[in-house]
Structures are given as structure tokens and as C-alpha cells.
Design a protein that fits this description.
heterodimer; A: alpha+beta; Calcium-transporting ATPase, cytoplasmic transduction domain A; Rossmann fold; 7-stranded mixed beta sheet; 6-stranded antiparallel beta sheet; 23 helices; elongated; B: mainly alpha; 8 helices; globular
Chain lengths: 722, 233
Amino acid sequence: MDAPYSVLSTKYSVRAKLNDDPNRFGCDFCGLPIVAAGATALEANDSHYCCYGCRFAASIAAADGDEGQARWAMTRLGLAIFFSMSVMVFTMLLWSQPEESRDQLARVWYDLLRYACLLFTIPVVLLLGGPLIDDAATELRERRPSLGVLLGVGIFAALIYSMWSLFSGSGHVYFEVVATVLVALTLGRWFEATGKLKTTAALRGLKQLLPDTVRLILAGEERIADIKQLAAGDIFRVLPGERIPTDGEVVVHQAAVDEQAITGESLPVIRRPHDRVLSGTLVLDGPLEICAAAPADEGTLAQMIEAVVQATAHRTAQERLAERISRWFLPTVAFVAIATLAAHWWLGNPSGGLLAALAVLVIACPCALGLATPMALWAAIGRAAQSGVLIRDGDALAAIAKSNTICFDKTGTITTGQASVERLCLAAGASEQPVLRVAAALAHCSDHPLSIGVRNFAEKRLLQSTPAIRNVQVRAGSGVAGDFDELRGRALLGSRAWMIESGQQIPSGLVQANETADDAAETFVAWDGVVQGRFLIHEGVRPEAESTIAILKATGCRCVMLTGDRAARAQTLAHSLGLEFRAQLLPHQKLATIRELQALGTVVMVGDGVNDAPALAAADVGIALGSGADISRHFAGICLLTSDLSRLPWLIRLARHTDNAIRWNLVWAFGYNIGGIGLAAAGLLHPIVAAIAMGVSSFLVITNSLALARFDRNEPQLEARS
Amino acid sequence: MIELPMIFVAGILGTAHCLGMCGPFALAIGAGSRGWTMTAVRQVAYTAGRVFTYGSLGVVAGFCGQRLSHIWPAIVNLPAILAVAAGALLVHQGLKAAGVLPKRAIGSSATPCLAGGFFGHFVKRRDTAATFLAGVLTGFLPCGLLYGMLALAMSTHSAAWGGVTMVVFGLGTAPAMIMAGLSGRLIGIATRQWLYAAAAWCLVFTGAISIARGVSFLSTGDQSSGGCPLCRH
């Protein structure tokens, strides 16, 4: 089956292309999505850049491959700066000349300075104007015209007008505008491209965690091989200080492994034979010999990278809005520029109109508008990935920022997931061994923590092997059922609510037995329409659960525990943790509860991802806890690679900061464009000031977004919701 | 422009400050050169680039001063105010350099430096054109001494004199920078510290003169009586 997307590695970025959207590419330099209005299919093998700055920056960054080209790109810009400074000096001296009563010498000096301006402007036009036109032509060819086309027209119109004024001996010259605007545009766009590259640094950092080679053990001999040759079942060696190339199981030796890069856990863990290790983690001491569970491109790290790429390639609602506006941006700006020129001309000031129209084109910055959302999202998604939080959907991040209700699954989420049976209560007439055999057979079919607890309990007491089982049905959130030949019927292992729903009679002596153990979880085994036994199970509560819930409540979030367990048990647990609860819920009742809560606001569902898939999918945001090595199987929008609940407040804080950054970026981009274009059209903004302001605008958006890439991971406190 | 010799001296003595800030660039420019001639050519090209930028900035500053004095001629005596402001800035820089005022770190770690790669590229390259461009870009580096001198250039209220002021200042910084680049370590740390202190007090002195000049403008309202009080005709 085809993957839903493909990941193409380039030197500087990871490029994403959604199969269902062939027009959506990431920029080959910065990796951000190319904002294209009505683009036709782009050739996958060609290089694509989102803007002139990225194209220029990529040509400079290619120093390793083609040093001559990179040196020329830099020299071109350096020389252009020198020539434009000279033009500015000549212009200042020109402007310093007294306007009236010039003598012959002053007149010669005046003309000399005007010609000097032209002489020094031509190299700038040749050095920087050429690539600008080239870039505009490329965009036209790819049918995604940008403002570069209009800018080229405006700049060359100013140049031709100034030359006409110079040679005709009358009228203003604007050579300094042409030279300075070209330099400021190129510098601004280049710095912008460099900033964008920094926002995607976290993603590239993940990719660099994978080593290029692996120490394969073949017939007892170690051989260095390309990582692509690694297959499932191969044995490989990892030395101290090296990263593990793929997921696997330790075969020989033991070592401390730093898993921070993948799970966000700061403390190293000891991995012994039969322990599972994750790709991208760092072996700190002692060698490890590992049996590969998957090729390197299917390991946890590769899955993480793919998940993040998919998230960043997905358009969020805010991005879709910005792109819709961008479609109207170009024609609107073109119209305003032409109208400005016409209006000033009509008022008798054609040269002022030309400058004003050019200022309109320069100040209009679709980059700030188009990148306001993705830059902040990329930075936040990358930062989260560094902390072991995989955000698979940008919309999930936006939704979690405004969430006001957080629902928790109980088993495996609030509790540790390591359940141990304290006691088996038998119905009158039932014997222990048959109950244990049937329960063990059913428990083997499920990975639910309670099933694992039952399985472990039974294995220690069973005297015979488990019976054959057929037609197994695992019902998420309820239990397991299967047909047994020796019972000549179907048996069930699961919750009290499910037993009642499926018509199994619960003997009154059984539920009354040991009622003092009401704070213990329970599961029932039944056949022939009667419950035969009741397992009382102890579940440890996660140590960070209480503090996490307290922090979440302090921020104004309503915390609700949804469980299929009985009310008495849920009440004891909920009371100790200080959260609301809904007990004895079957899966469809959990969904109904979530929908009921959704009527009051945005609902986040936190589960262990094993038996909560429907609830995770139904909530506005699903967060799967403890995804570990199996992130691909969850339907949750967000996966925590560890089972650490304390990540939740941090995640919400990150989401809120991201939301604020996006809002700020959008407000700034809209305000800057509307205000700037208005001032420019009125002739109140000089094109040089506009060019500098454009660079400042992009810088502010970049700085605001980059702050998310350095978002503090350690501070657990949340600011109170206002 | 009576102050020009003083500005040149400030440039010479300010070299100690320049060596602290931009000396590593001069050394990097000289590194890897084959022979004294090539080293000298590159140091001269680097210094020429710096002086070119200083001169250009001086022209812009002088022009701005001229325009401002035209815009508000009747309201305030702008050249006098600029002279006082420039003097205050120079005195502040001098006192900071002398250790009398506390120094503050420039910039913030939260602000990304996006231009580093661009500048570094020219410093590392070996050809003369790139060396000249490295000098041009070095001239834009943030520098309190430069800002003080630019304020002084602005106070000339003339584009041409503003440019001349800054070129003279740049030429003043040239000899020691070129020598430092040529020799690598011509000036020892102890000497540099002594020169640095001397430059700091020279800055304070230049600033005090500028303030005195501005104050005399303001008090007399007659610009023709301006100039260095020590050298006034």
C-alpha cells in the first residue's frame, strides 16, 4: 500500500508532497510549503523555492557543491552594496546643491553627479536586477506569479524614467531608489530565507540523528555497511557514543541509553537483553548488540520524521484563510499600484506617482501574510518533536490552545498500566482452574493493562494449558469474547457494564464479596450467561497525575475521568486526584459523553491509544499517551512518546503560545500591508523606507516564530487563563 | 572645520578601541597571505573599505543634519543641539571605555543573527575585492565610537563636510589597524590597554569640546563664532 505521503530528502530540508495534492511542495531551501495560488503540477525533480530570498540563499548555501557559484552570488551582493552606497553618496551631494542660481561650475558639478548616479546604478541593476527578473520568469513559467513580477516592472520603470530625465536634461532622477530598493529587497529576502531555515532546524536535527552506516555482525564478524542495507532480523553492534540506527531488541550486553532525543526523557535508562531500544537514541556506555526489528526507514525516528512532515504539509484552517487572501493579494496590489500612478498623474505629479506606485509594490509583502501561520507552526511542531511530543496535525495544536475540557481514560492513562491481580473471587459452584484457564485464554488476546494483569496472575497458578479459542472479538473499552469448544459456547472477560449489557447474570454473593476492596479495579469472566469469577486488581496511580491535574485545573480546564470501571472505584480515585468522573461507561457511552461535553467547548481526550481509538477520534483533539515505538497506529492528532502526564500542561502552554504567535503574525501582516499600502499610495512612504520596512516586517515575523523553537521545556507551570 | 585634526587624533587613539572590536577581523584578513606585499595590499584594501563606509555614512549623516536644520531653523538651533548630543554621546562612550560607567552587552540572545554568514564569507576569502568588501561591511558593525563620530558628522550640517569628517576619522584609525594586521601582534596587550585608556579620555575630551561648541552656539545664537574653543580665532 502506498504511503499517504512521500518524503524526499534534500540537503537542507525535508520536502513533503501529499499524494492527494500534487501541487503542494516544500521549498527546497527552508522546507516551508510553497504558497501558490492556482499552481499547476510542479515537476518533482526540479528545484522549487518559495521566494527569491530562498533561491538566492540556496545558491549561496551550495558552497560545498559549487563554490564558484556561491562565491559569485556573495560577491554580486557585496558589490551591489558598494555601488548602491556610492549612488547614495552622489545623491546626497546632489541634493545638497542649492536649487537656484547655480553658476556654471555648480551646473557642471550637478550634471556630473547625476551621470555618476547612473554609472553606479547600472552595475547594481545588472548584479541584482537580472536574478530578480529571472526569478519572476520562473514563477510565471510555474504559473504561480508573485509580487516579484510587479516589483521588476516597477523598478525598471523607475530606472527608465530616471534615464529619460537625465538625457532630456529635465525632471527628477531616482537612481538611488532603484539601487537601494534592489539591495534592500535582496538582503531582506535573504535574511528572511535564513530565518525560515532556522524555524525548520528542529526537523533537520531529527533527521541528523540517524547514522549513515551500521556495524553489521555477519558470521561473528563486524562489517561497516550502509544503513540502507540493514534489514529486520539483522544483528548489529552500537558502540558508546553512537546512535542506534533502527528499532530492535538487545541481544547481548547492557548499557545506559539516552532516549531524550526521541522520548524527551532526560534521565538515561539501562537497556538489558530482551529490552526494546528505539532508533535515534544514544548509547552512553558499553557496546550493545541489537537484533533489528525493522529497516532504518521504518524505525521510530523515521516514523516521527514522517509524522512531522505530514503535519507540516497539512494546511491548517488559518493557512487556508491566508492562502485564500493571497490569491487576491497580487491583483489587488497591482490594481492599487496602477490606480496610485494614475491618480498622481492626474494631479499633475507623474514622477511622484511613479515613486508612490513603486512604494506600493515594495511595501506589499505577501511573504509575511503567507508565512505567518506555517512559520510559527513549524517551529512549534519541531520543538514539540524534540520533547517527545508528536503533533500530527497543525489544527490539533490550534484546537488544544482553546481547549477547556480535558477527558482522561483511567486504565493506563491515570493509572500506570501495570495492573496486578490481588484476588480472584469465585461464584458459588465455580472452581478456580477452569475460571483461570478461560480467563487466561481470553486475556492473551488483548493488550489492555487489566488483561495483562489477569494473564500474569493466571500463569503463576495454572496447572494445565489454556483451552483452544475461536472467533475472538476484542471490544475496545469493554473486554474480550471468544468461543470455547470445551465450554460449548462463548465466554467473556471484561467490565461489569459489559456483563450487564450482554445479559450475563452477576451472582449477588460475588459482587458483595470483599466489598471493602472498592478502591480496586475489577474484571469479570463469564460463560453460560453467568459470571463465574471476579478479579480484583490493583492499579498504581501515576505519580505525576495529581500535580498535572492540579496545574490543568488552575488554568481553567475542566478535568473529567471517563472509565468503564464501577462508580465506587472511580469515585475513590477521582476524589483522591480532585477531578470529575463518569463511570461504568461503555465505548458508545464514552462517545456520547464526549459529544455532550463538546457542546460546552473544545474537548481534549487523553488515552493510552490502545483501547480508546473511538474516543480519541471523536474528541476535538486526541492525545495518545505512551506511544513508544508504535506511533503509526494511533489515530490521535497528538502522540506523547512517553507516558509522562506532566507533558500535558507543557503542551497546552506551547499550543497557547503558538496560537498567540500566529495571531500576532497575522495581525501584524494584515496591519502592515493595509497600513503600508495606504501610506505608500498617498505618497507618504518613500520606496527606500518601504524596502527597509519590508525587511523589518519579515524579521519581526521570523523572530516571533523562532521564539517557539526555543520554547522552555522544563517550566511546568501554566499561566492562568484570563 | 577646526576639529578635523582632533578627529584624526581621536581616530588614531581610538584604534585601541577598534583593535579590541575589529582587530580579530584585521588579523583574519592577514592570515594566510603569502608575503608582506600581498598582506599589505589586503590590509590597505580592508581599511579602504572601512573608510569608504565611514565616508558614505558621514555624507548621509551630514545631509540629514542639513535637512533637519532647514526643517526647523527657527524653532531650535539644531546644529548646536546636534553638537551637544554628539558630544554627550562621545563623552558617554569615553567614560564607558575608561571604566567610569558600567558597560552593557549589546544585543540579546533572543535575536537571531542572520547576517553573520554573509559577513564571515568575505572575511575568510583571500582575493582583494572580497577583502575590500569585508572592509565595507565592517564599517556597518555596531560601534559606540562610530555613532559618536556620526553624530559629530551630522552636526556639520553639510553632506560634504559630514563625509570629510568621517573619512578623516577612518584615516586616523588606519595606521594602527594596518600595522596590527601586518604584524599580527605588533601592539602587546599591556600597550593596547594603555592606549585604550588614552583613547577613552581622548573621546571624553573630544566630546567635551563638541558640547562646549554647541553650548556656545546656543548661548550666542551666532554660528560663526563656533568651532573648537581652544582654537577659536
